[in-house]
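Ticket #4471: complex job returned nothing on first submit. Input attached below:
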Amino acid sequence: MPNVGAELASVPLGKMIYDMASAIARSQVALDKASIQLVKVLAATTFDYVPDVTEVLLPNPKTIPGVHDSFGNPLVVTGVQVQTHVGDSFPLTLLQAGVNPTFYAFTNSTIEVKMSITSTQESSNTFSVGVSVTASADFLFASGSVTSHVNFTSANKYSYSVTGSSTMSTTLAPVPPPKNMMPRFFLVNAIDPAKVTVSQS
Amino acid sequence: MAFQMYMVAFDGEFSDATSRSVQHRIRECNGFTLMVMKTGVIAAFDDAMVPTVQGHPAVKLVGGVTLNPRGFAAERLQRIFAQNLSKQIEVRPEPGSPR
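Support reply: We reran it on our side without changes. The output follows.
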């Protein structure tokens, strides 16, 4: 008879869990290394940031040649002149500007083991008995014989099969950057040096 | 299909030809270039295309990035991304729709 418990016990579940956890840990390290590498790239990538552009609107009255008002004076219309002042640009890193690297983490992992055990047994027996009786009688003699036969056949068929399959799945999700891996930004206001703002992505 | 924003860092010295070639590869992957810098480009493309972009000989690193809304120039970057994206998106009328 099949022993289901023994078959289940033979599944190397512990090794499967260890192998999967080990693979996840190696992948996590590789992903973190790639993200840290990206932090360095973002911190080293600068672009010229123009903090402000000031536009000043100034009055710019104009007379329209050949056009006069009802009093005969040259017609004056209000014009406008725009003076643009572009602030000095300064280099800003992508990290300062607000581009953060994406960190990933394995959130949950599942190991599913399916096992199918099939056992069939067929048994057939045939039993036949035959008896033949012959008798003869004469004047002085009489004879008789009895013969019998017994046939017995027995057939047994056994079949036993075990099939198994396993599925491993894991979920990779983006997570906020770990604080220890992101730099802190110190903003020192030179006008009022006592005011220092510390921020972190 | 999961579109994500990536930093595509160049390998080696910057050149216009290299930058254009990488941007062309991103376009071939149905991606969009959002911002171009001397050390790389910020682009948006399907995450299934990461190996293809990474396979470009001038690409050193491809890594997912997000825009932190509290960043110093986050709003400015968002506008730059939107402007550059609008130049690459082709809007076509749907078949049968009135022109």
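Helices of chain B lie at 16-28, 50-54, 74-88. Closing as resolved unless it happens again.
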